[in-house]
Records
---
Amino acid sequence: MSDAPVIVHADDLYAGYLPGIDILNGCSMEVREGELIGIIGPNGAGKSTFLKSLFGLVPIRTGTVKLGEEDITNKRADDLVKRGIGFVPQNNNVFPSLTVAENLEMGAYQRPKMFKEQMGRIGELFPKLIERKDQRAGSLSGGERQMVAMARALMMNPSVLLLDEPSAGLSPDRQDETFVRTREINKTGVTVIMVEQNARRCLQICDRGYVLDQGTTAYTATGQELLKDPKVIELYLGTLGA
Amino acid sequence: MTNRIDRRVVLRALIVLVVAAAAVTFLGSLGSSAVASTPEVASYAAGATSDATAGITQANTIHAEAVSDDGSTETNRYLQQFVNGIVFGLLLALASVGLSLIYGTTGLSNFAHGEQVSLGALLTFFFTTQQTVSIPFVPVEFTIGWPLIPSALVAIVLAAGTGWLQDRFLWSPLRRRRVSIVQQMIVSIGLSLALLNFIQWWFGAERQRLSTSIDTRIDFGMFEVGQSTLWSVSISVICLGAVAFFLLKTRTGRATRAVSDNPALASASGIRVERVIRLVWIMATGLAAIGGILLAIYDNAAAFDVGARLLLLMFAAVTLGGLGQAFGALVGSLVIGVAVEMSTLWLGTDLKYAVALAILILVLLVRPQGILGRAERVG
Ligand SMILES: Nc1ncnc2c1ncn2[C@@H]1O[C@H](COP(=O)(O)OP(=O)(O)O)[C@@H](O)[C@H]1O
Ligand SMILES: [Mg+2]
């Protein structure tokens, strides 16, 4: 584990959508600056719910989330954007009737000046998007949409990026591209917390992984350790190919 | 950054407009032959049927060259109704654009939108009439009698204020408590009835005139239009243009479209969704008031239930154009306006709503997502 300062700290979260039903029951996480964290777990374990609760989109019932020293529990999403968190949801992660450029502009909504500055950086990371900037996002392919979604979340230059299954539904080539790109973004100094279905691939690139099962963070270790852990292999990697 | 509605959409809208006009003509001819079974109208209807069949080609070709010599008065009639339809459609659009924006950003089908239309017209009457007026619960009678334009402006501001008030104290708290959309819709039905009765109680049940001046009609050869109607149309076009400019060319407008697309993602992008929705309510109620005032001028007068009677046409227009698509509401209103006005050539005015509904069903059978609605690709 690196000894950089802790940037995101989730402590024993309980959260859920419907009154009285907790989807998360005891999720904790400690993320240090510059880390790439992978969260794996079976379908329906609450991975998306966990990310959404960090980002203020699912109400947290007990527990706290801290960004650095600041308590950000249940803060509004637009407020968290201002504080430097970016979020790419699992589904519906672009504005379909807006053009690619407009989608990116929305990403920098709070700081219109950032939009022009950031376009250069986005152009380097996603040259394809610049070609298609006047196309409606709804007409793009899944992979292209994923790029728009990531680029949009990067517009405000976030210090922490939350990614929910960025490789879902993509062809193997595109999946690889997504992982490589995520690593690149992380290398530029952005702390990344990613949820992934493709557990093996995710653990290969991440610094540390968390295993989430039935709404609880069951265990954490470095990616390499988890890859070799017999229990993880049996439960999550056994049937999944590379 | 370029923001344009792509040409295909405009083309598609035009095609549908023409098809709809043809469909009305066709339905009309069917309708009038059915009416022909009643003896008194038989001779008239028989005439109308032959006119109508000739009219199928004529009504669609706006180029009047195609008209045979003896058919010139006929063309006049068709063209006149077509023009009336466009006028009515443009005024209807002012009301429906707001309905569509509210639906788009909040998911709410606001049944009380009709009352916002009536309110605009009757508040204007309140400020402009020479009669004595009073405010509910205040036992003083007085006369205001301002000129029409300042009265209208004050009425629009007040009406937009009711939009702010509603969202601030009713809709926003309901959303915050995650009251379901169906429940909100039922609240809006209740609000609609309450407002309807309130407006009737305040302004009475009579039709009230906003202006007593006599309108001069301007002859364009093939058709004629009242001078005040020309003004109304110009104001409507300017307002609709301003809405389009707002939605396409301003940052807040683009954020409004983003909220329509996906409120959660808009919030995750840093947009203050609630603020956008507040603004939409203010705009929507303001536009409805403008629509109400212009319609009252176009119709010569307005009664407390003018909006309630328009509500169905507004919903038809919004659905027809593509739910939640602001430009869809414009196109839908034009189609409905033309269909309704042209249908009066063959059918009684009482059948207006039936015609609107027929067009709605026809279009939805062909394009379930509405004229401008898009079937999004998945994955
Ligand atoms: N919007 C929602 N309302 C109610 N329940 C939900 C909602 N979204 C997810 N859930 C429930 O929360 C649980 C965890 O879902 P999710 O966090 O999406 O799992 P994962 O991302 O790990 O597959 C599931 O049982 C799911 O049915
Ligand atoms: Mg998920």
---
Amino acid sequence: MKARAFDYIRPATVAEALAAFAEAEGDASYIAGGQSLIPALALRLQAPARLIDIGHIAALRGIAVEDGWLRLGALTRHVEAHDHPLIAVHAPLLALAAPYVAHPAIRNRGTLGGSVALADPASEFPAMMLAMAAEIEIVGAEGTRRVPADAFFQDLYQTALEPGELLAALHIPVARPEQRCAFDEIARRRGDYALVGCGIRLTMPRDRVEEAHIAFLAVGPTPMRAPAAEAALIGARLDAEAIRRAQAALARDLDPPEDGEVPPAMRLHLARVLLGRLLGRLQDQIAEAA
Amino acid sequence: MSAPLPVTLTVNGETLSHLIEPRETLADFLRRDLGLTGTHTGCEMGVCGACLVMLDGVPVHACLIFAVQAAGADIATVEGLTESAAVADLQRAFHERNALQCGFCTPGMLITAQGLLARTSVPSRAEIRDALSGNYCRCTGYEAIVDAIETVAHKRAAGEAAPRFTEEPA
Ligand SMILES: Cc1cc2nc3c(=O)[nH]c(=O)nc-3n(C[C@H](O)[C@H](O)[C@H](O)COP(=O)(O)OP(=O)(O)OC[C@H]3O[C@@H](n4cnc5c(N)ncnc54)[C@H](O)[C@@H]3O)c2cc1C
Ligand code: FES
Ligand code: FES
């Protein structure tokens, strides 16, 4: 239960970090909050020869609004998603999901960049990137690029990040007044990874759904959008009939894998229950606001 | 290159410089190198909460941070919080309410409680339970721990200073 020996480097800049990785010829790992990596090292699931601590790189920090986008530096901690006023206003789904991520002490160290880079399909924040139509800023030897969340998550633990590249920041289009969102999950115990979780963002300029983003966690190899359920809502009023249609459509979106924890049919059922619960909650909010 | 590195950090108010192997966790450094065995290790993977310490004023798992990462940081262990009497009222309430049996989980419980009360002055019982979701106790059944934390929350909110803990409550 102890990590294998490694050498430790604490670069001050992105350029130094990229150079330290290149020098290690692939046998290196970046460490941010360490809340996923250190257990993996202790269990010797991973044993890189070099650990590059990116936790002190100023360019990877900061929370700011620029031109209609909220920019969250990769090192933004889970606890800030929970507490930061700019996140509460401009990316409410992150604030809604944060209390469900692990436990308070883990949220004090875990970073949003680490969570999204790891891309655990059972994690809350990666799925919220899909629900918020976020873009992920990546920096590497070739320079910087921005990848939409839909293209970022590719397969189990596989993202658009190439070896040695750093996730620099998350860019989130600021929430608009005509958007409503909701998050919830079903877990055996609070703080445990969820059996299924879901974040929704509906754009409703008047009383009909103009745009729908529905993202699930823990239902497949990546965080997943639910395009058929989304399509079932477009143009509709959010009423019981529309909600039933969206729930029925989920069978076309999700095909949960066999994983020994719960049978795929049960996971799909739980996803339907959760979707109905969240859309019902939004329906109530709309009724109250009217 | 995995040779020990010089690290300077503050532990319980004292600034120390040590040579530390990069793979040594903060928990092992505190326990083995400094003899501060109040920080317990159970699972060593972030699940049980026995190893919690304060890092720059907030609770973190000492098993989920390498000591070299803590260079420049200000650490407080349960020993430091006891000596400064910062948690004396919590210790007294735990004692009075029998919120510990074997005591293995207690240092972590105290750190979680201290962190919670710093953020939320009078948390609800549900909020207390939520904050304790990462602290395992195999003895008490948690009810007494929630009671003790709730009592202290109300006392602190009413402006009662933390009385120094003594073995025999007066
Ligand atoms: C007991 C326990 C319970 C947990 N429960 C949950 C939960 O319910 N939900 C949940 O979502 N998470 C949970 N977590 C995981 C936690 O949220 C992690 O903090 C998070 O997944 C990773 O963030 P980190 O900063 O700690 O990353 P690290 O552990 O430092 O890194 C994780 C991986 O990402 C890479 N990486 C990190 N930052 C970058 C970057 N900027 N660019 C490129 N690569 C990078 C690292 O190389 C590593 O491979 C739990 C963890 C524990 C120990
Ligand atoms: S020893 Fe750190 S959480 Fe269990
Ligand atoms: S008192 Fe024994 S584990 Fe809590």
